[in-house]
Amino acid sequence: MSSLFEEIATPPADNIPVRRITVNVNGTDRTLDVEPRLLLADLLRQGLDLTGTHKGCDTTNCGACTVLVAGRPVKSCTMLAVQADGREVQTVEGLATPSELHPIQEGFKQEHGLQCGFCTPGMMLSAKALLERNPNPTEDEIRWALSGNLCRCTGYQNIVKAVLWAAEKMRAESN
Amino acid sequence: MYPSRFKYESPKTIEAAVALLDAGKGDAKILAGGQSLVPMLKLRFAFPDQIVDINNIPGLDYHRFDADGSLHIGALCRHEDLEHSAEIAQRQPTIAAAAPLVADPIVRTRGTFVGSVCHADPQGDWAATMIALGGHLVVQGPKGKRTIDMKDFVLGPYANALNYNEIAIEAVIPAPKGVARGGYLKLERRVGDFATASVAVALDMDGNRVLRAGIALAGVGGKTIDANEEASALVGHDLTESIIDTVAAAVAAKAEPRTDHRGSSDYKRQIVKTFVKRILVAQIAEKVA
Q1: Do B167 and B210 fall within a single domain?
Q2: Which of these, A12, A58, B73, B212, has the minimum number of CB atoms within 10 Å of its CB?
Q3: What are the backbone dihedrals phi and psi of residue B65, each rounded to the nearest 5 degrees, phi first?
């Protein structure tokens, strides 16, 4: 193996073929050789240096590592990198353009939707998936949609406000 | 916290997947949604030699009602597909009630109905739902297809009746006699936690008369609890508060809860009784909108 994966210290056994995969990450095709057991979160963080995807619990509980795969939120610690072969992945790095923040990012800034920031990338990507399906969610619908993302700082109040702020901005922009 | 090494294949047909399982001689494992398997690989509770990823097999992501009224759920139908289905909301109340309570919204985008049934976790929502609904699974092996009734499917915790070279390709819920009614209630400490207790109730009704009744429990025993026998006391009767009380008590007696950090055995039994009652009372004809 290359230097991709520090967590897999020893080289793969001879009978385990490395697989070549091509994943479209934030709009760019990336081709890599990976061991089948490599997790998508580690492909992003270690393989592609996209460290905005945070690993919180590593046990499918906290949602900090949430990314969008084919537009739907997925816990990237609970999906194999090889399963992303041929698919589109969006991480927090793909939200902003060089010149401006995504309305969801702006909402988190305006409404103080984060404190330590560790859960924020996952929160924002879950929020993005929600707003694509439901551009005008109620507070309850936001809380429900974000219930797989844990935050230990904010008490969620300002996160909900941030998503409401973003929803309004995105509706205004689409009119 | 890293899976042990495995070989990985992602076949394009069910036949190819079955061939890989067959060649694995018990050391190969199907990967569908992966929301239970991947955590178990990471904890090394599971360490298969071969992973057979079925996500690239086309045509398995459906759920549909056939003309005869039976419901068919393909092996790659995700929890959220059922949660957001207008047809399910309209025609299958037990599944409609359970779908939003499975795990959390992110897990529901990947995890599959059939995979959850096969996983046979004593806490699993769908195995209990399938038992209450009297469903069966269509499974495919090297010699072709067969069906397995849900009552014979869950053998114990994480143990099902599939042979090592068989794959469950579809779950089937038979057409209701009369109108399908019912519900699902789960007590959990927080979203995504294992259930403290869950109750699935499925009724076929004609007006206020019960034509078929199924009840199953999750989280209150070493495996999914089949209380269909207790539920069958409702059949042929009108739903009344008094018969509901009798059945709720019998179902609660069938539960085998253990005292743990989620509550005492008595507490969980009381929850089961309350949930059975709550769901059944809501089905009394005059209370149905």
Answers
A1: no
A2: A12
A3: -95, 125
The residue from A74, A94, A114 where one domain ends is A94
Per the listing, tokens 């955590």 go with B39
Strand B50-53 relative to strand B7-9: parallel, antiparallel, unpaired?
parallel
* Disruptive mutation site among A7, A14, A18, A37 for chain B (greatest number of B CBs within 10 Å): A37
Transcribe chain A into DSSP letters: --TT-TTS-SPPPTTS--EEEEEEETTEEEEEEE-TT-BHHHIIIIIS--TTS--SSSSSSS-TTEEEETTEEEEGGGSBGGGGTTSEEE-GGGTS-SS---HHHHHHHHTT--SS-SSHHHHHHHHHHHHHH-SS--HHHHHHHTTTS--SSS-SHHHHHHHHHHHHHHHHHH-
pLDDT tens string A97-132: 999 999 999 999 999 999 999 999 999 999 999 999
Q: Are residues A74 and A128 in the same domain?
A: no
Which residue of chain B is at minimal alpha-carbon distance from A11? B5
Which ranges of chain B have pLDDT less than 50?
none
pLDDT value of position A18 = 85
Please judge whether A73 and B109 are an interchain contact, meaning their C-beta atoms are less than 8 angstroms apart.
yes
* Integer Cα distance of B251 and B280 in angstroms: 12
Nearest chain B residue to A80 by CA: give it.
Answer: B38
Domain ranges, residue B115 = 63-173
Interface of chain B toward chain A, CB-CB under 8 angstroms = 1-8, 10, 31, 34-35, 38-39, 41-42, 51, 53, 55, 80, 100, 103-107, 109-110, 191-192
Report if residue B146 sits inside a domain: yes
Does A9 score more than 90 pLDDT?
Answer: no
Answer whether residue A37 shows pLDDT above 80.
Answer: yes
Number of Cβ pairs closer than 8 Å across A and B? 93
pLDDT above 50 (res A1): no
Q: Decide if B39 and A60 are in contact by the 8 Å CB cutoff.
A: yes
Q: How much of chain B, in percent, has pLDDT values that exceed 70?
A: 100
Give the bridge partners for B218, in sequence order: B198
Flag whether pLDDT at A6 surpasses 70.
Answer: no
Return the structure tokens found at B264. Answer: 């005492």
Find the helix or strand (DSSP H, E) in which B183 lies. Answer: strand B179-187
Least confident among A1-5, A136-140, B237-241: A1-5
